Amino acid sequence: MSRAKPIVLVRNDDVDTLGIAPRALEEAGADRWVWEARDGQPPPDLDEVGGMIVFGSTYNVEHADEQPFIDTVAASTRQAIERGVPYLGVCFGAQLLAWALGAEVKRSPVRELGFEPVRALPPATEDRLLSHYVTGDHVFQWHMDTFELPNGSELLLTGDSVPHQGYRVGERAWGVQFHLEVDAAEIATWLEAYARVGDLLQEWGKTPDEVTEEARVLAAAHERRGAEVFRHFVALAGDVAA
User: Fold this and answer.
1) pLDDT tens, residue by residue, 82-116
2) Residue 26 burial class via C-beta count within 10 angstroms: exposed 0-12, middle 13-18, buried 19 and up
3) Which of 116, 181, 214, 228 is catalytic?
4) Taking 60 as the threshold, does the pLDDT of residue 3 lie above it?
5) Angle at CA of residue 155, ends 149 and 160, nearest 5°
6) What letter would DSSP give residue 202?
7) CB neighbour burial string for 29-67, b if at least 16 within 10 angstroms, e if fewer
8) Is there a catalytic annotation at residue 91?
9) Would you call 179 a catalytic residue per the annotation?
């Protein structure tokens, strides 16, 4: 991939550290630039972008009227799809991708928090980004919304409680409901931030200690799988640029 075209990381929340993403992209040979969308920073010129990764947010698309950055990122998402710019949406980013393409975003049947298993569907086995995920792999979740699949998309990963976990639109755009970028340190940061504003057990059904223990057991393998996604994304962006 030409180093003149960085991967743009779209940060939509003040407490988001982007986890392993910056390091994984650097190790894969990609330059990167962080778009502070939540702070009102202007969007990048997509002609100068090698790929776009949209991360999570404490806001949902239902807050678009009060949070203008949501419409701004959605517009850039649609432009990326139209221009064939490689795109990856993570949690809020996956919901935003669906919403930007006309699919419904709605309340999830359950609130997922912590590490939950996914199941790989047959199309995942040949997928350029997610083929290394297999049934039973645990992924980190923290969300209350889910989405319908956009027209023309293909479901790759599913879950028992929330079916739409990973999907692809065309050959260059993906959405994953889970936080493939988080590491144990970011989980700790999020738990500390939430403790200042709410009761995790009452509102999400788990204690901070329970989530921390899950991370102790499962985070390392989760991080390795997430880093592989970012390596695959850099390779895809390089092929597109070639």
Assistant:
1) 999 999 999 999 999 999 999 999 999 999 999 99
2) middle
3) 181
4) no
5) 95
6) H
7) ebebebbebbeeeebeebeebbbbbbbbbbbbbeebeeb
8) yes
9) yes
Q: Which of 143, 179, 222, 232 is catalytic?
A: 179
Q: Pick the catalytic residue: 91, 112, 223, 228?
A: 91
Q: How buried is 184 (Cβ within 10 angstroms: 0-12 exposed, 13-18 middle, 19+ buried)?
A: middle
- 100 vs 196: CA distance, rounded Å: 32
pLDDT at 2 over 70: no
**If we measure between CA atoms, which residue out of 12, 43, 121, 86 comes closest to residue 234?**
86
Q: Is 103 left (phi over 0), alpha (psi -120 to 50) or beta?
A: beta
- Tally of CA atoms within 13 A in the half-sphere of 107 that contains its CB: 3
C-alpha to C-alpha distance for 42 and 122, rounded to whole angstroms: 39
Structure tokens at 133: 């995920």
Reading the block at residue 200, the tokens are: 């995790």
Closest by CA position to 9, among listed 241, 237, 240:
237
Active site residue 214: no
Pairing, β 87-90 against β 32-36? unpaired
